[in-house]
Amino acid sequence: xxVRPRRNDFKLIGLYTGKIIMGVGLLMLLPLLVALIFKExxxxxxxxxxxxxxxxxxxxxxxxxxxxGDLSWLHGMVVASFSWLLAMILGAIPHxxxxxxxxxxxxxxDLMSGYTTTGLYLLQDLDHVSYSLNMWRHxxxxxxxxxxxxxxxxxxxxxxxxxxxxxxxxGKEEKLLPNVIQTARAIWLVSLSYLVxxxxxxxxxxxxxxxxxVRSLLHxxxxxxxxxxxxxxxxxxxxxxxxxxxIYENITVIIFIIGSFNxxxxxxxxxxxxxxxxxxxxxxxxxxxxxxxxSLATAGLMKLGVYPDAxxxxxxxxxxxxxGHTTTGFSTIYSREFVRQWGPMGMLAVTIAMAIGASACxxxxxxxxxxxxxxxxxxxxxxxxxxxxxSSVVIQKFHHIKDTILEESHVRSAMLIVLAYIFxxxxxxxVAVYYRYPVVEALFDSVSAGSNTGxxxxxxxxxxxxxxxxxxxxxxxxxxxxxxxxxxxxxFAVAAIRGR
Length: 500
Fold this sequence. Notes:
Low-confidence stretches: 163-171
Structural class: mainly alpha
Oligomer: single chain
Number of strands: 2
Helix content: 55-70%
């Protein structure tokens, strides 16, 4: 029997959702400042309207939803999934007012793409958007990589035992420190430290390429945000190909590979446990699968004779496999070149890399290296059981920050999430095929959306049907939150309607 939520349940959810939405409004202060510095008066008004909308809505929610008690696991997951939807709608206001979107759903699409660090976009005339709008786009993906719940925990929410429920509801599980709020601040400490170093490296490189100091600095900050968060947004429509620089490409590769690693791994290395880099099951799994998919892509490109020599093949194949595998979505070619030049073999290799993804509890999406490693260890364990005497006990371990004995619950959880991702990829593919897109292309962009990658072969565009836009938004949303909190929101809504 479904139990109908009580009034206090709705108030608790509304209270914490209001705090998170206020955090989104405060984030808009940075692009507003950029608009004022560069005298972009119309965008400044757009952001003022967005800030007012978020702050007034968030404050109204907190005033009207004063509640006693703390969050349960259900509350925390509902807050996580529901606040992402509201943050998408309210955060899209400056986007839509900019005039670069045909419909409001297009602006919402870009907001969800930013929050989920996907990098697909429907924005029109990207090469001529304002500095402030570009700052907002990249700030979204940078904040989304850490998580909007993490922002609220780090800067706005204090002393609540329910904090861990919201943290887990956003698709994160590991605490770097005993207190989850301290963990959120540690995540931001790591990210902001890398932001300074990475942005300076890209800024200097940009100036050597002939870009002016101010524009080079802004591009450096924006490209770093897109790389570190594995988000894939870039300030130019040609993406990283705009810079025509092997050095610039190499810097972004380093940033997005490091950015795709688990935050717990970053913290372990920061605190002196450097051997984790070579021992961690996610890192081992990542480098095995990246070499397999890179080999497939290279074989496909060599057969087609797309690029003139081995150096060119390596440069293009490795960059896009690494970009896909880390779910970054940066590219040095136009989207239709995947279809016209890479062919089915090359596209399949990138699709597999995107589907697997990077690390759990990071900015990456997809199956995750941890789950792939667990499934592999489970297969090894079953083979050992088959060839061992019946009386023997076979124990399999995996190392993820610490040695852990593989249990049935680990395998079951990993398989359920992998199957859920496969189902998500399949739904997006079927919808695109229904609208007469080729299967290979439909699968490529569907996996890209569901794994929060952002590479596209041209299926995702402002001109695709609105149904596909909605389906893709849902794919990005549930892929980033890893299903459970979205299922909790749906269950909560059903209980509110049909419960007793």
